[in-house]
Amino acid sequence: MTGSDVSLESALSAVSETTPLVNSVTNEVTVNDVANITLHWGGLPVMSDDEREVADMVAIADGCLLNMGTVSATGEETMLTAGEAANDTGVPLVVDPVGVGATPTRTRVADRLVTDLDVDVLNGNYGEISAIAGDDAEVRGVESVGEYGDIAVSSIVCARKTGAVVVASGETDIVATDEEAFEVHTGHPMMGNVVGTGCMQGVTLAVFAAAMDDPLQAALSATAAYGLAGELAADGSFGAYHGPASYKIAFLDAVAGLADAAPDVTGRIERIEV
Ligand SMILES: Nc1ncnc2c1ncn2[C@@H]1O[C@H](COP(=O)(O)OP(=O)(O)O)[C@@H](O)[C@H]1O
Ligand SMILES: Cc1ncsc1CCOP(=O)(O)O
Ligand SMILES: [Mg+2]
User: Fold this and answer.
1) Mind listing the GO biological process terms from this record (predicted)?
2) Could you tell me the CA-to-CA distances from 127 to 28, 166, 217 in Å, in that order?
3) Is the CB of 197 under 6 A from ligand 2?
């Protein structure tokens, strides 16, 4: 596949025509943003994370996100229960290993998720993806710091290690499989100034993966669409902003209005030689 195979019009139509129910087991820092952006893409959010119910909810869902941003001991087990239910019922599974590499606990939990579960799409920032690949990484709390000149190689290594399509977020997002990598040239620096843009990207990937058959096509479409919404928010198309808080509102409005903005990603997705 080349980047020119990606059509946002058909991807967004697939979402609106299927209205995918996505269950997110996620952190309490950004859970409301994750729920709202699911709706704004055209999906239906549910945030079931109780051990007594989660397997039943995932079994009736069309997609599942596991985000380990504030994972507790019970939350760890519930994420495995949810992920196993997704695997058992063929529900596409997205994992966001928030903060992996920052502490031994986060590294252990992330390793357990990618080892014990069949993950369709794995999304993280440069530091998190590099940490899972086993490369040098500096993750301070949940933020990626430092330089990652070989992030495309790390992303392919991570894809080979996990069997997932990998999305490494940063100034330029990388989408990689075990064999190839793409650069997605969309987005805006303001997106890095809002807590939750990584978490919201994770559920965006889950919505598109739920609506589309091919996880690579879904990951490329979702990543490109997400960045375009960030650009439209920054250029005033959805209202002026005066700082990161008002930018976040404009960004959510851009997601909700993207389909009507006739988004075009021609030339924005580049298959790279690694
Ligand atoms: N400097 C930047 N330029 C363009 N897009 C960015 C920039 N920083 C972050 N983004 C975008 O913001 C989203 C979240 O990325 P990131 O901040 O790396 O995730 P996290 O919040 O998990 O650390 C991604 O879509 C990414 O492409
Ligand atoms: C700050 C923080 N702490 C635990 S989860 C979380 C939110 C992380 O959101 P994102 O990964 O989108 O920056
Ligand atoms: Mg993140």
Assistant:
1) thiamine biosynthetic process; thiamine diphosphate biosynthetic process
2) 22, 13, 24
3) yes
